Hints:
Blueprint: H1 14-52, H2 55-89, H3 91-124, H4 131-160, E1 166-168, E2 171-173, H5 177-182, H6 187-215, H7 221-255, H8 257-264, E3 270-271, E4 275-277, E5 280-282, E6 285-287, E7 290-292, H9 295-301, E8 307-308, H10 322-353, H11 360-386, E9 391-393, E10 397-398, H12 399-402, H13 409-435, E11 447-448, E12 455-456
Amino acid sequence: MGGIGLTAVDQAYLDQARQMQALSFVVHIPLVCFGMAFPAMILFLEWRYLRTGDVVYRAVAQRWSRILVALFAVGVVTGTILSFEMGLLWPGFTATFGSVFGLGFAIEGFSFFLEAIFIGIYAYGWDRLSPRRHLASGVPIVITGVTGSFTVIAVNAWMQHPSGFSVRDGRVVDVNPVTALFANGFLAHEFVHMYLAAFMVAGFVLAGCYAVGRLRGRWTRYHRVALAVPVTAAAVAAPAQLVIGDWAARTVAADQPVKLASLEGLGATTAGAPEHLLGWYTDGQVRFGIAIPKLLSLLAYHNPDATVRGLDSFPGTDLPPVNVVRIAFQSMVGIGSALALLAVVFLFLRFRTGRLPRSDWFYQALAVAGPASVVALIAGWVTTEVGRQPWVVYGVMRTDEAVTGAREIPVGYGVLALTYLGVALAVVWLLRRLAGRPLPDLLPRPTPDATTGMGVR
């Protein structure tokens, strides 16, 4: 594979630029999960309140809507930083391919503004709109949370599997952004994988918070409802994620064979290639790992005797950092499998007994599942993005052709780190303040009856 033909930028801080982008992404991507999944959970609770009249559902939904506002505000900060970094850190990429991916970011921008408008209506309309209109005002939040994420993932899928343009004399021509973004072979599995991951992260993080409360003795019906909804959503998504992961792996095997070889640390092209659990890649082989014969061929091609290309069949300049990709991939798969097992146990007990589990071990595991799901999410994106290196647009433009030539990267890196530290402290303070609000304040207030003047609920 060859690059687009641009000259690599003489940038002494290429790694720092990558790390700045990675830091912003790590901070922002869990918030994206809440933006995709959290509104649907809130609307489900409000819908249950309208169907049953049970004020507990309304109380949980109202409190969660305040958390949604807080997380959205933080997402505005982190998302804006990411947007600026695209142009400031990678001007070669944005200048060359802006006509290709610009449509995706334009749709994301419209989605963002619509989402902001309806979040404001929803959050402040609890006692100002009729119940049905208030519920309806939340529907656009769910839709725009998905469409905004969908278009950004479409851009990433295009970077993994570029199409919809031609290169002539070092210039990008014949651009068809609709084909590039929405007829891309990577889009379907990337979006479904991320959508399920969003419910896993939002579900397990929320449920983990209430699981800690249960272990500390806070276990009213309010807390049971607030735990049951997110853990059920996460439990449905987690086993399905294993199937989508298989789909993604087979797509990578077909279109990014160097990434597949890096995931396993497969040094030489092999028929009936094994899969190694754990271990360290060095000198063309995995050491200290547990080899499972023919498993890689089976997983990648559904044929235990299929031939898998090894790392030695690619130029050394086209290889990603193998151990970073392997460790991230195995962390994602290991944690994801453990979460899927926990989900199956929960669903089994839930359907068998008709109630939440009673054993402390389950809630201890659930408390760990929250942060573990975030680790798995980040590990998955490290696998995707680092596994694509050294390409910013796979097979077309290298990262060192896209990076800025500015020399102030270390200063910006330090300022960025301090900014995110301040944001993190502010989020912790705000969420603790919201969590400390007394529950009665969140229940429906009595409204005057037109005939008696007395309060009714």
